[in-house]
Predict the 3D structure of the following.
Amino acid sequence: MKVFVSGSKNIYRDNQDSVLFNELHISLDKLISEGADIVIGDCVGVDKMAQEYLNGTGYRQVTVYSSGNRKSLRYNIGKWETREYKVKARNAYTMRVEKDFHMSENADEGIAFWNGESKGTFINMICLATQGKKCRVYLVNDDKWITINALEDLREMVGDEGKIGESTIREVMEGCCFSKEMIDYSVSKGVASPLALADAICRAPISLESKERLINRIIKCRNIKYDIYNLVCENVANDKNFKEIKKDIRKLLNYQKDDVWSKVGELYYQSADAMSEFWNASIDNYKMLYVFDEWYDTDDIMLKSSGCGAFSTPESALRYIRNEYEEWGDGYYRIEVWDLTDDIWNQPRYDYYVYNGEICWVEKKLPRESDDGNKLYLTENRTFAAGDLDLDMMTPYKAGDIVLVDCRPFGPEFYALILEGRDQWDCCFPTILFRVYGTDKWRITALKHRMFFDDMSMKRYEPMLSPLYRLKKAQEDEISDIDRILLELAEKINGSEEVAANIWNKHSEMGCDDMNKEELDDLFSEA
């Protein structure tokens, strides 16, 4: 008889209770007395504890399994026979589970020591049950044994579907630099889509490393046990064989399923890939980095860019930028990474945006051939920049509120009047009224659409950063004299969505785009 011995890797650190050790030793002694062939992994925790005990007894009918791409096993204390499986996967956990698949297939039954949380041990039990093989399980936290004979026996151990809780919403939004008002309002809702929250992380004015950490925080809210259990039950119901079931488990663990969690996981890897591209860009790898100082010029009312030179390493480029920040402390920088071997522009290119000395945004660009046969780079992926669609989150503001809109460093901050605050599930709400910077014109537009600034060369310039992050209610004493007309207009609305809707409808009937002061007064004359 061949027995698969497994258990949680954290047990050894978290629980060195003698009861656990005794149960493990009694189980191994029984297997030894029966002359069982023992298959075991090379991990810390139960794997290592069992190996240490078996080695102490001198028992030789042991095979140690490992998988991944490391050169040697982590633990083979008794220098037993080994089975090694070299596999490539996106993460270490997915590589390690491969050995567990083989052990469950090669064993006749299993013994598991489970802390109630370990995903790997739970998958081992599922794999054995799927193949009709029993598994005796010692529940460490309950100090009792149970026997798993079928998938149904695991149902009570699965738990609820993973979801984003209030503490995670607050942690993520604080990490993304949202205002306290936006955070408190979102937390009060009590629920959040993992993908919507991840989308907010991707565009936030924080470093890419911070974005990876926060996206990983969301991923940890997923209940892998719940997802895998339901996946396997569905596969069994559809008469899929174990080979097909393993394939689907791999896809789930690799974030390659068509579900929300896989899409969030994909964002994590996109960020990691972009940073890997940056740190591998050096003259030694035949790549150059070109730095540009960029800013929205409030005197000339246009977006400007000034070349700062070429750099041979990422470190030298960032060192230059950080030194400039120390002296000037304004604007942002863009770093283009060019492949010097790609003289006909066939390969993708990354542009990195540096703010406060950190890489905060990145755009992947692909070469496209124009009608005249020349090539130019067009943005293929803006996930970690402005996004393909405007960031769409509900806000706590109502008609007549005056808010501070802050999209720095991509444009100056300004005050705006919330015109219509209703129906915020629609990306066209709330609408705002504000004086267009550098002009005497007034504009009404959707806050989330970012149509705030003019540009002498492009007519309209949309800042990369969404206004939702730093959006907050303005205090009366903060508002400058030139914008105090907003207070008068707010009094006319007096918090009424109906009045605000009437003003919007009248504005639409007037057919005007930007308004002068006379047109603005006329618009509010009957409010």
User: Anything to note?
Assistant: DSSP finds 16 helices and 20 strands in the chain. The chain has a mean pLDDT of 91. The two ends are 86 Å apart (CA to CA).
